[in-house]
């Protein structure tokens, strides 16, 4: 018998979401931790998928800080890790190539707007 599987679907408005598939009619009890501290508010609700449940993990603002913050989602009964997610913020992000690319995109958009405005004004 295969154990439960938890697959991320998205993160939106400060809430991590995933689909949990498991054997049986009830989902396993889940615990979410950050640095061995329990994160409250996790919900598991029935999903349209057969044998599946929607898992929602709200990300508390008090756990966010500079650097990498990792949350671990485990089966409370077996202590098996089902999934985890990390967030990167602050000074550590300034060195990240993805942040640089995002900044370049914003600057390119600004230059395109300025160029279009210049073309309209000089016509």
Give the spatial strand order of the biggest sheet: 1-2-6-5
The gross shape turns out to be elongated
Total number of helices: 2
Amino- and carboxy-terminal Cα gap = 72 Å
Radius of gyration using CA atoms only: 21 Å
Structural class: alpha+beta
Whole-number mean pLDDT: 87
Write down the secondary-structure element order. EEEEEEEEHH
Largest sheet geometry: 4 strands, antiparallel
Task: Report the sheet-strand fraction.
Answer: 35-45%
Explain what this protein looks like in three dimensions.
Helix content is 24%, strand content 41%. The N and C termini lie far apart (72 Å). It is of the alpha+beta class and 123 residues long. The radius of gyration is 21 Å and the shape is elongated. The mean pLDDT is 87. The protein has helices at residues 91-94, 97-122, and strands at residues 5-12, 15-21, 30-34, 37-38, 43-46, 52-58, 67-75, 81-89. The chain is built from two helices and eight strands, in the order E-E-E-E-E-E-E-E-H-H. The strands form two sheets. Strands 1-2-6-5 form a four-stranded antiparallel sheet, with no helix packed on it. The protein has a four-stranded antiparallel sheet with strand order 4-3-7-8. The longest helix has 26 residues, at 97-122.
């Amino acid at each position: 018998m295969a154990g439960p599987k938890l697959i991320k679907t998205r993160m939106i408005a400060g809430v991590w979401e995933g689909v949990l598939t498991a054997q049986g009619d009830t989902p396993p009890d889940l615990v979410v931790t950050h640095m061995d501290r329990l994160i409250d508010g996790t919900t598991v609700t029935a999903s349209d998928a057969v044998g599946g449940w929607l898992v929602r993990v709200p990300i508390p603002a008090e756990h966010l800080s500079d650097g990498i913050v990792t949350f671990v989602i485990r089966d409370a009964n077996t202590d098996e890790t089902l999934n985890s997610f990390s967030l990167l913020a602050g000074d550590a992000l300034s060195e990240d190539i993805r942040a640089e690319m995002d900044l370049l995109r914003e600057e390119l958009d600004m230059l395109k707007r300025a160029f279009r405005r210049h073309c309209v004004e000089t016509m």
